[in-house]
């Protein structure tokens, strides 16, 4: 049986195609803002091409993400926490908690051995927009997200930025730049500030297990992951392609 999941976020669209529990294709592209319906169609076609199949070969397509209603070719949709939980269970069968930090939304949840959500918390204490904030930071510093991640452990002294608000943190960042603060110290400061916000989410009305599946593009930021480990005391389990968690979960749900 072949199924597919489409995750339409505000920054990126992801598509995953599964056949009998095996990933045939995983594609990603910019969401295109107001053009995200056409972007979803384009990513879908790229995924079909990678899988070497046609749309008629796919039994069911499920959409998720904030733009899920824009996927005209989907057979149904699910809310993001439900997709996250199913993907987390598939990635790490023994885990029972997942944290997904995307461009605009951060969410944490516990789930049972079937992947059903037990409880969930979203975007508390300005934990939203972290993914977008790091994309903006990379542009400000003239670096890629991968280059920023590679700076992990290189800072020789500590700088700091506002820990409560991404906008104020951005203002502090420009102040640090104008004062000649090294890039590695700026990145570390932003990682620490983001870790504070995410950790507040983990401690808000929910108790996660000590082993937490971490999904979303932010999971590729080694400095942030280490800062979050230090503050939360959790062990984060990171899939090889953490950004595809939502789309994978949707494809698994499509498979039943």
| Poorly predicted ranges | none
Assign a percent range to the helix content.
25-40%
Strands, total number: 10
The CATH class assignment of the largest domain is Alpha Beta
Q: How does CATH name the architecture of the largest domain?
A: 2-Layer Sandwich
Rg, nearest Å: 18 Å
Order of helices and strands: EEEHEEHEEEHHHHEHEH
Number of domains: 2
Write down the overall geometry.
globular
Question: Residue-averaged pLDDT, rounded?
Answer: 91
What is the SS-derived class?
A: alpha/beta
Strand order of the largest sheet: 3-2-1-4-5
What is the name of the CATH superfamily of the largest domain? ATPase, nucleotide binding domain
Distance between the termini: 10 Å
Largest sheet: 5 strands, mixed
Question: What is the name of the CATH topology of the largest domain?
Answer: Nucleotidyltransferase, domain 5
Q: What report would you give on this structure?
A:
The chain is of the alpha/beta class and 256 residues long. The protein has 2 domains: 1-79 and 243-256, Nucleotidyltransferase, domain 5 (2-Layer Sandwich), CATH 3.30.420; 93-238, 2-Layer Sandwich (Nucleotidyltransferase, domain 5), CATH 3.30.420. It contains 8 helices and 10 strands. It has helices at residues 36-51, 80-91, 130-141, 145-149, 166-178, 183-202, 222-232, 245-255, and strands at 2-8, 12-19, 22-30, 60-64, 76-77, 97-101, 106-111, 117-122, 211-215, 235-237. The protein has a 5-stranded mixed sheet with strand order 3-2-1-4-5. A 5-stranded mixed sheet has the order 8-7-6-9-10, sandwiched between helices. Helix 5 (166-178) packs antiparallel against helix 6 (183-202) and helix 6 crosses helix 7 (222-232). The protein starts with a strand and ends with a helix.
């Amino acid at each position: 049986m072949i199924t597919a999941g489409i995750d339409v976020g505000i920054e990126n669209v992801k598509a995953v195609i599964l056949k009998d529990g095996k990933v045939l294709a995983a594609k990603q592209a910019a969401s295109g803002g107001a053009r995200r319906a056409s972007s979803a169609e384009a990513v879908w076609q790229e995924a079909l091409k990678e899988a070497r199949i046609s749309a008629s070969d796919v039994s069911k397509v499920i959409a998720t993400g904030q733009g899920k209603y824009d996927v005209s070719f989907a057979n149904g949709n699910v809310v993001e926490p439900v997709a996250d939980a199913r993907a987390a269970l598939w990635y790490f069968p023994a885990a029972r908690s997942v944290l997904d930090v995307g461009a605009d939304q951060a969410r944490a949840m516990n789930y049972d051995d079937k992947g059903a959500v037990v409880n969930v918390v979203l975007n508390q204490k300005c934990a939203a927009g972290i993914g977008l904030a790091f994309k903006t930071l990379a542009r400000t510093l003239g670096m890629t997200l991968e280059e920023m991640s590679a700076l992990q452990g290189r800072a020789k002294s500590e700088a700091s930025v506002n820990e409560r608000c991404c906008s104020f943190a951005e203002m502090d960042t420009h102040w640090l730049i104008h004062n000649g603060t090294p890039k590695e110290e700026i990145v570390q400061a932003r990682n620490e500030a983001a870790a504070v916000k995410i950790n507040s989410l983990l401690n808000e009305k929910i108790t996660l297990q000590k082993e937490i599946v971490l999904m979303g593009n932010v999971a590729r930021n080694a400095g942030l992951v280490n800062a979050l480990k230090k503050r939360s005391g959790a062990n984060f389990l990171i899939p090889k392609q953490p950004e595809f968690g939502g789309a994978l979960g949707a494809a698994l749900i499509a498979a039943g």
